Amino acid sequence: MGLFGKKDEIDIILDKQTFSSGDTITGKVVLHLNKPKKAKALNVYLFAIDTSNGMYIGNPVINPTMNEGLGGPGIGYNQSQMKIYNFKLTLDGEKEYGTEQKEYLFELKIPMANSGSSQQGGFAGNTEKALSMLSGMNSAVISWYLKADLEEHLGIGVSKKIQLSVG
Fold this sequence. Notes:
By secondary structure, the protein is mostly beta strands. It has 1 helix and 10 strands; from the N terminus they run ββββββββαββ.
């Protein structure tokens, strides 16, 4: 309950909870609105985020404001995230969405995994693999998400995101 009454919500209900590469996700989006809303579309997205952990070797600047110059070789750790897959499915178009609970069925296919884990080749790719193996760190983790949103004219009105278990 919100401060002034019932809060708008979107629910995502799936037929199963665990998936593999190449599987089809079947489910439904359930829309609960407090009052009618004009919106552009009701969408569902399947996307994947690649979180890469890695080490770097370089010569960092020790204290540039004191003009102390470059220090010796530095070793550090960094993490980056990149959206590597994004698919949008429009479940319903522009209209006024009413207050009655409505269910929208959907099917989305998870793409097949690539056989190669690294897109980089040559010296840079091999160095990254070697450092990853030596450090014992996982160089990349792929996280899959499903998101549903009611796209209003001034942005996203109500949305929900869930993480999928894809192995």
